[in-house]
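Example 3.2
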Amino acid sequence: MPLTPMRQILDEAAKKKYGVGAYNVNNMEQIQAIMKAAKETKSPVIIQASHGALEYSNMIYLKKLMEAAAEENPEIPVAMHLDHGPNLKTVKAAIALGFSSVMIDGSLDYDTKTAGGAHPARTFEDNIRVTKEVVDYAHGFGVSVEGELGTLGGIEDDTHAEAVHLTDPEQCEEFCRRTGVDALAIAIGTSHGAYKFKAEPKLAMDLVKEIHQRVPNVRLVMHGSSSVPAALVDEVNKYGGKLEKTMGVPVKAIQEAVGLGINKINVDTDGRLVITAAIRKVFFEKPKEFDPRKYLGPAREALTKLIAERMVEFGTAGHAGDYQPLSLAEMKVIYAAGASGGCGGCGCGKKH
């Protein structure tokens, strides 16, 4: 089975009011774990890779691994998504590899860095220009596009904003209308990376509700949504780690956001933590072990368990068989007809 357009996966989630996790990967074991969890819970899934992950895997390896994942699990709708694409060049490379969805992070200027290593925010007009350029290109291949308004704190790969800017709901309608994006990442107080918060965060749920009302046909996305469980941090440190105490986004907050209109939830740090904890445990308890299968295997199983839990918590479980996945060729026809998301994903709610 070919990869599924992310637009369809999120539209189906919106119909039944559940969230779909988007889980970052860099290697084979991560992809295997996520797909095993999806199969066990009968969940549609979004697997995503950042620009850094593409470089790490030498690009072609992720392509072939994802082809195998789709072929091995034909009953699971699965999208492959480019996370935080910095420019059109990277987007084109991802689409050439067969990705069914891309994000263009037009909120930041990735070609410029401050003395502290952060990227400055783009202007609203420049964000629209960059995002529209990607939408026009990607939709020609049937590929879904996620844009971003506002900026998050924290650091993930090369995504490091100079300052945090919550999304302005009044800008969302114009942004979605002028760009035609399928999905919109919004800043409501979440943060990238492991060190998110020192106390339980107070997220701007009122923004989720208002933005969803303003652009009901554009699928909303929460970035920086790992929960960073204290038990996982403690497990890493128990076996030699030196992680500082921190807090992530509580699952109950994510569930509340899903009820208000969020359909895509990005999770990366939790996966890294559970893998690291499992590997450290093997090295601590069996210091003579040198067979990679003996520590990557337990890491893979630990990640499978974690992802399956998130699929249940987000409401994704049980929905894999709800619909017949579209091909990118079919999605290309839909985009050409201007039928997806109202008028090309503008969020007006009308069919043209």
